Every structure is written in C-alpha cells, then in structure tokens.
Amino acid sequence: MIIILVIVALCVIIYVLATILEKKQEAEILKKRKDSYRSFVARFDKKYGTCSEIIKNPVEFENDILRVYKESGVLVIKGKALRFADIIRSRVELDDSSMAYVAPTVKTTEVDKTSLITRSVAGAILGGKTGMLLGGLTAKQKTTTQVMPYNIVDNYCLIIETSLNQHPIKKFQFYDDINLAKKVSKTINRTIGEYRQVKK
Q: What is the pLDDT of residues 105-157, one digit of tens each?
C-alpha cells in the first residue's frame, strides 16, 4: 500500500513539474516575441522619430503592418521603409497568379514525458526530493511539427506604385485578409494626399 502511495505521489509531483516547465517555456517564448517586437519598434523609431499612426498586426507581438512617420516623411510597411515622396498611390488587388495551396505548419514544444520520468526517478534515487526535482528540470524537450490540411487561399495584395526606377512596384501579400489590406491602402493614400497638399 505504501509503495502505491509513493508511486502516486511521484506521478503527481512529476505532473506538476511538467506543468511548471511547460508554463515556463510558454513564458520564455512570449518574452522572445515581446523583445523582438520592441527591437522592431526601437529600430524604426530611432531612425525616423515619433510614429504618428500605427496599424497593428492582428497577431499580438508581431511586427506592425504599417507605421507612419509624418515628420520624417516615411512609411514602414511590414518592415520595409518607403518615403512619401517616392509613392504615387496604393491599391488592393486579387493576385490570381499567387493563389495557391497553403499548408500551414504548426510547431509545438513540450517536455518529453519519458525523459522527465526517467530523470526524476534517477534523481530521486541519487539525491532524494532535491535530486528528483533537479532530474526533472533537466528533462529533454520534444518538438512536434504538424502540417495542417491544404487549403486554397485567396491572395489579396497591397500594390504600391512608386517613382523608383529599379523597383517601381512594391507588392505586399495579405492573403485572404482583404479588409486589412484595404485599411492599409486607404491610410497610405490619405497620408500621401495630405503630404502633397502641404507641399503645394
């Protein structure tokens, strides 16, 4: 009976330990994404000054879709900087040539349960409760890649016409999010219109 209770207690402790480790991993991933976003913002703000208008990415802590720097006369679209003076106009188009089968890949990382149990038990034998916890903390991680079913996705593109000789057309993909693409296009055209009025 005592052995069964010890095994149950060990299983509960291992489960709790696995949960703590998974939460720790999730917190680390979120921190990395936040740091990456802060770095993205700092890089452009340092170069172009105060951002006057932002269209956020629907995915939290991803690089902003659009950042407007009126004082510097620069738009940052999906991480690419364009000067107001170089932009003629923008529009949204359905890019038939880019309509394709898309298979999203989802990666998940979790603690390898076999490694967790093995190392926790080995740690318990060698160093008691402390050894069990240390053994559990050194458990290997397992990454699983899952490919989702294929889907046909409409590819709506933001087309920006510029006066640049080498690359007069800039294309940004928005896939099936036509509303977001239109919102960005409208903001760009309004900003460029206001810029031209001031220049007259």
A: 555 666 565 665 665 555 555 555 555 555 555 556 666 666 555 556 678 99
66 Cβ partners below 8 Å, 6+ apart?
Answer: 53, 54, 55, 75, 76, 77, 78, 184, 187, 188
Tokens of 4: 């069964």
Distances (CA, A) of 87 to 40, 50, 127, 164, 190: 23, 21, 68, 8, 12
Write the CB contacts of 148 (distance below 8 Å, at least 6 apart in sequence): 103, 104, 105, 106
Determine which helix (DSSP H) or strand (DSSP E) holds 169, and give its type and residue range.
Answer: strand 169-173
β strands within 39-167, DSSP E: 53-55, 66-69, 74-77, 80-83, 87-94, 100-102, 105-111, 141-147, 151-153, 156-162
DSSP label at residue 74: E
In the predicted structure, residue 42 carries a pLDDT above the cut 90: yes
DSSP type of residue 148: P
Across the chain, mean pLDDT equals 81
